[in-house]
Amino acid sequence: MAMRIYLSKDLREASRLCADDNRKTLAEQGVLMINLMGSPGSGKTTLLEHTMRKLSGLYRIAVIEGDLYTAKDAERLSPWCKQVTQINTEGGCHLEAGSIGYLLKEEALLDSELVVIENVGNLICPAEFDLGEDIRVTQLSVTEGDDKPAKYPLVFKDADCVLITKLDLLPYCNFNLERVIQELQIINQELVIIPVSVYNGEGFDTWINWLVKQIEAKKKSVLS
Ligand SMILES: Nc1nc2c(ncn2[C@@H]2O[C@H](COP(=O)(O)OP(=O)(O)OP(=O)(O)O)[C@@H](O)[C@H]2O)c(=O)[nH]1
Ligand SMILES: [Mg+2]
Asked: What angle do helix axes 204-223 and 13-29 make, rounded to 10 degrees?
């Protein structure tokens, strides 16, 4: 016989409170925190390598790497970034606000001007968990197929910026860029959409300029 269980408590409440705490801590310090999401292999770490190479001389940047296993991504970023922390979820499909809050107690992290979280590669679960970030960036590579925004809308709907990555491979993929851009604009009219390739540099400066604007706005907000 089927049994219905009524929950009188919101099971996500603790996580939401942690996210709010993280946002408050970051706001007090003027630190911008970005939650970078996307499928496994969509190019998140590669984008970060190039982004750090460009910005690490200009800003104090910390990276939090989320992966099920290994410290491979943290090792890739360590030449470009002084403060890299790897979180292994050991099977977990997303990061949680509590783990980020624990790291935000470290002085080195709060001394940064930008904290980038590379979430676990996945278009589903990370979208459902607020980490206390200011900005959500979702990557979609042209090799994944142009049906993904329609099939996994939440991670695109709640994003501030979508990077359509591996643009250099567009001629070899059955990916209708114009249609994807239109679909994304319907899902979220405010979305900043930047097609980019770190291999041939297309769109990369547009991404960097947008990111710098966000860092500067956050720094200014603490002064005003
Ligand atoms: N052609 C092309 N390949 C790219 C580009 N960006 C990344 N790649 C390749 O895509 C593969 C996966 O890149 P990663 O940066 O490791 O992907 P990821 O999203 O961090 O993967 P996970 O951390 O496992 O989720 C690598 O072989 C990269 O060299 C690009 O702009 N063009
Ligand atoms: Mg990675």
From this structure: 80
Nearest to 63 by CA among 97, 35, 93: 35
**Which domains does the chain carry?**
16-218 (3.40.50.300)
168-192: average pLDDT: 97
User: Which residues hold their Cβ within 5 A of ligand 2, which is an ion?
Assistant: 44-45, 73
SS (H, E, C) 14-59: HHHHHHHHHHHHHHHHCCEEEEEEECCCCCHHHHHHHHHHHHCCCC
Tokens 């996994």 locate to 152
Q: Which residue has a Cα nearest atom 7 of ligand 1? A: 43
pTM (global) more than 0.90: yes
Please tell me if the CB atom of residue 126 comes closer than 6 angstroms to any atom of ligand 1. no
